[in-house]
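User: Working on a comparison across species. This one is Type I cytokine receptor cytokine-binding domain-containing protein from Umbra pygmaea. Can you predict its structure so I can line it up against the others?
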Amino acid sequence: MYSCWAFFVTYNLVSFVASTTELSSPINLTFSWTNEFCWKLSWSLPASFEEKLNCSPKYQVNLPVPGKVPDSKRTSSTTYETCAGLTGVGNYSVETLCNTNINQPAVHTIAAPKELVSNFQCVFYSYNDMNCSWHQTSQTPDDLQFYYAYPISKTSISNISMCNTYLHTAEKKTGCHLSCNNSFPHDLFIQVNGTVNGSLVRNTFKIDPKSNVKPPAPKVKIRKEGMYLNLSWDHPNIRRPHCWKYLLNYSRCQEPKICIEIDRNSKNILYEPECQFEIQVKAIFNTCGTGESDWSEVELYGKNVWPVDVGAIVIPIAVFIFVILFLCCFMKHRKKLYPKIPQPSLVYKDRTEEQKIVIGSLYVPDEKVELNINLENKPPLSSGIFRPGF
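Assistant: Here's the predicted structure for Type I cytokine receptor cytokine-binding domain-containing protein from Umbra pygmaea:
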């Protein structure tokens, strides 16, 4: 039983490997440009392919995507055409599919062209205006030119236009302003080219305008309606209003800011007469693409009014702190404010004493002293007075 099962598995495995190896790889894989932005891959199969396997082959074309998994496309033709940007090195491969079999891919490697510009990006900032910018490199030629076109189909483009308004930095081309009578399409092909060492070199880009949207910052209008403040602003002039959301950032009475997300261009907030409101708004393009505006300027409404009880506490404390600071400052700088007057030197003092003129003492009259003297009457001598000798 076991030997029969092993024989069955081995037989099917050998059959699978045999059928896989019999499938031939495409040959003569070539890459060619059909215009400034579109290119074509073409290949063929060995003449004996259909004789070996009875199937209608299909092909899987693997296109390189920088930093991502290759983009795979399937076709029954031996050519593949598309319009796409081409800047870096890429390995373009084609695989043959027949029933459940797949062969080893045929690979065509395209060497990376010289980098004429770096940090290339385009910013969509209004309904029909866009700015593209770049940094120059050591290989940027003096005759650098900028061209663009719109796709009409997968394999064709509109007439190629040249940039009419270049942006300059230090007299060097570092950008281009694009203007369109109607809204920009979903895709835009751009090429910058120039002469390097006698040869024409080009870098091509495919951009999606809605992937980098940056409208001007909103202008907030404030209106008091009863107990509420009505905040409003205009929708950006890019796509439809439903494509936009908004971040509202506001604070009152110097409290921490409150940030909320809303999907319309107005909002009512409770009004407090004793508070000052600080309000900012940012527009976010997040349902039809990516991008956002800068924050609007801070709009102020009302004034902070401090209650009486708060003032009764804060004002004395503020005065006390001011007095303390004043005294500290005065003690620190008192010597500068009231400098000490220096004493005359001893030499100067001695000379002054030597030059003194001796002046006689002034006459001081004797002080008169008044005394009160009382005289008493002497009593008369008595007749009976003893007289000696008698």
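For your comparison, note: Residues 1-21, 383-390 have pLDDT under 50 and may be disordered.

User: Helpful, thanks.
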